[in-house]
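Below: protein 1.
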Amino acid sequence: MIVETLRTRLLRGVQAGTLRAGDRLPSARNLATEFDVDHRTIIDAYRKLVGEQLVEMRPRGGVYVTARPAGVGGIPALPEKWITNVLVEALTREIPGPELYEWLRRSLETLRLRAVVIASTDDQVAGLCRELRDDYGFEVDGLTAAAAAAAQSAPTASLSLRHADLIVTTAAHRTWVAEMGSQLGKPVTVIDVRPDLLGAEWGLFLRRPVYVVVASEDFGDVVRRFFGAVPKAENLRILVVGRDDLATIPENAPTYITQRARQNIGNMVLRG
């Protein structure tokens, strides 16, 4: 009980700024009078705080606040012994280091979920990441399907996958991403867009030419296939940044620009 009281006083003093590294603390005999105990009980409590690296006991010099560098908010850094004990316990139970890190992260972080998006093209990845981040509050990383497949055999590259709370992918990659999620112990959500929900809306747009600016030819093909059955789909004009001349878009023409395409245009302007 006494050691807890002394620890609390010390830490609160450090946080409040009334105690600093190197400050001398009350003697064991003074505290023995306060707590009405034998002074050796106080010395034993101080020794426990020495073990936690919170105080220093100097022979014939008294007890002082440790001179170790403080952590965040002035709180003394965690004793190395604590961390060592955690690592030893993990090794005893044959818990790999990365798994221990993941467990600690989940225990200490807020409840904001972390997702990884896997889709065919950069355009899709960027768009889905934006929606999950802006509309649902996720922390999001994105990978193309090719990069995600390569990440399975590359420990460093797969960190985002192993740290994810959720993997989000499209119907085109449903099977193998589900298998990967099962291996990693991660839930997988497959999303898709129903053409019948967008068909009528885009049917109105496509009564005249509509321009869609994309970052890659592959995503342009995805857009063409998606709207293939929509009436007047022939009015869809796909332009790829870096390949097609965007100046050919007529003034006031309805134009949709993917997020990734917008970023690429900005980079081109900066380089120019």
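Below: protein 2.
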Amino acid sequence: MRNPAHPHRRRVSALRSCVQIYRPLGFEATLSFLASVAGPFDRDEAALMRALDLLAGSRALWHLHLRRYTALRRAAKRRGNRTPPAADLNPNLGPAAWYGAERRAALHALEFWRRKRLPALVAADDPGTREMADAVAACVASRGAEPVPGLPDLVSLVEDRIRDGLYQRDSVAFARARDLLTLAHLVATAVAAEALPRPAMSRL
């Protein structure tokens, strides 16, 4: 990808393939964040290199967290604590944020969702959706400087719907519910509160 002898379009395609593998904000939002920070990498050589460095840097920090988590778990097991606390974020389940720029990336992703995907979620009017949209709007308005009241309750509401066999009843509504959990996690990250653990289903 760094070889300028290769056509630029092919190298951009290679970057997109990398984002398919490492996409802490989701595929489209990750590409959007890279473009917002690095510049128009789809047509600019220097921007492409900056985007690659940003992506590689975040991934390297994630791997650092993986190694630290592994060391902590080994030490805990030696002490007899074989089951990690439920509140612990396991980085092996995937990156929980954009490592190295958590708040900035989360706010960008929330703005991306507001433009691209949130209107369709609101139109479906599932339980908790309008409240989640209000939480997103409040978070973006404060630039993550203020906590968003009621967020844990919203997460519990959505998780209860998922656990109640939502996938079997309506797989499309299940996908929307997972999107709401993603938004809740982004809000929690942006306000620099302790990040809400992503349920396993939301990582599918």
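The chain has a mean pLDDT of 89.
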